[in-house]
Amino acid sequence: MSANLTRTTAADLAALLSTGDVSAVEVAQAHLDRIAEVDGDVHAFLHVDAADTLAQARAVDDARAAGTDLHELAGVPIAVKDVVVTRGTPTTAGSRMLEGWIPPYDATLVEKLRAAGLPMLGKTNMDEFAMGSSTEHSGYGPTRNPWDLTRIPGGSGGGSAAALAAFEAPLSIGTDTGGSIRQPAAVTGTVGVKPTYGSVSRYGLVALASSLDQAGPCARTVLDAALLHEVIGGHDPRDSTSLPQPATGYADAARLGASGDLTGVRVGVVKELAGEGYQREVSEAFARSVRELEAAGAEVVEVSCPSFEAALAAYYLILPAEASSNLAKFDGMRFGLRVEPSEGPVTAERVMAATRGQGFGAEVKRRIILGTYALSAGYYDAYYGSAQKVRTLIQRDFAAAYEQVDVLVSPTAPTTAFKLGEKLDDPLAMYLNDVATIPANLAGVPGISVPNGLDDAGLPIGVQVLAPARADDRLYRVGAAIEHHVRSSQGDLLARIPEVHR
């Protein structure tokens, strides 16, 4: 029964819990047992508190027994990316700079998870301060892809995606600044959603790039992601960028799309997000998905977004610039790590230099240096200012495209999961993993990655669907239809994942 519970979807677990066929404690214990069994190999989690998880689950069981009206997902456990602040639980953002920090408050989305009764299994591993595409830049060691333990699980949210693929959690939370939810989903055979910017509160996220960061749901099915999105979304007055719209209708859209019928939906294939540089099997799987969309009744046309070709360059100026500003607070003075110089006078400048030199990893230092340079006097207009102009052009390309179509589609990532260490010494090669996902963050539009096949080595591939801002429901309808046709033609892809042993 325990193994079956860890392989059951969140929606089905919710149904079992509501009828009393299983208890929240049983479900939580099954997942804790699975974590104990395989996470020594996978390293998806940085922190697990089994006693606290079971206490949360027991509270749900007690409330259900007392006849309390509970949320649909009450009792379904969840894993949370370690960039999300959690009261009483360590939050490190994958960095030694915050090692041992226990926040005194919850992020808004964590408050919503607790209110809905989702027991938290633990905090998941990530690239340090969400800077990376492979989770190799974590200050606590890399996470491994459950499909092949010699390969990366994507990044920066590789821990949240790997926990799903290893059946350690039915749901997880990620954050997406340039693809950090969608790219890990693609390479682990799971589902990841970057909501419309501002539709899920950023209050309580350790900031990387404030104009790009967005928390979102991660799951193994489109419906599960939609159900979780409805829990964490909605307006938050503590976030000045929060949108006023409620997070509703996503699960209904997923259920509608699950029929596989997309009659009347206009789909645009982005010319600039395909072709050279994409792995052969990725291109073939994408072409197959486009044919299946047409067979489902969608009208498919090619759309050109010429400014997308400059998105990567613009992103890697805007993100480092904002990171340089956001990470300035980690100075050894107020909270987190403090390192005093080994010799000589103890001044503020020398403490700051020692702390940041020891506390930050190489990738974080690289981006801070890039960002500080881009913002410096004499270079601001040439670099950061020009990148913001490109951002405006990308937003205009999206607007023009959505006048022609309802959604856009592309491969999620140009390749499947590469070997650990393969690109670690080549930053440009690593950055290219986000070439298809970055435009959505620059424009603030929502996107979803759905599994759509396996490559010749048996590794998962993902297809990306993008929608206009505040039209996240379209992601779930089209994503669920893709999921339906993939299962009809290829079966359950996750059923082919190799069993992970300790």
Count every helix, treating DSSP H or I runs of 4 or more residues as helices. 17
Q: Major sheet: order of its strands?
A: 1-3-2-4-6-5-10-11-9-7-8
Q: State the CATH class of the largest domain.
A: Alpha Beta
What is the level-2 CATH architecture name of the largest domain? Answer: Alpha-Beta Complex
End-to-end CA span: 20 Å
The total number of structural domains is 2
Class inferred from helices and paired strands = alpha/beta
Oligomer: single chain
Instruction: Tell me how many strands there are.
Output: 11
H/E element sequence: HHHEHEHEHEHEEHHEHEHHHHEHHEEH
How can the largest sheet be summarized? 11 strands, mixed
CATH topology of the largest domain: Amidase signature (AS) enzymes
Shape: globular
Which percent range describes the beta-strand content? 5-15%
Rg from C-alpha positions? Answer: 21 Å
Percent helix: 40-55%
Could you give me the name of the CATH homologous superfamily of the largest domain? Amidase signature (AS) domain
Round the mean pLDDT to the nearest integer and report it.
96
**Low-confidence runs:** none
Pfam family, one: Amidase
Domain Amidase: 26-475
Protein name: Glutamyl-tRNA(Gln) amidotransferase subunit A
GO biological process, one term: translation
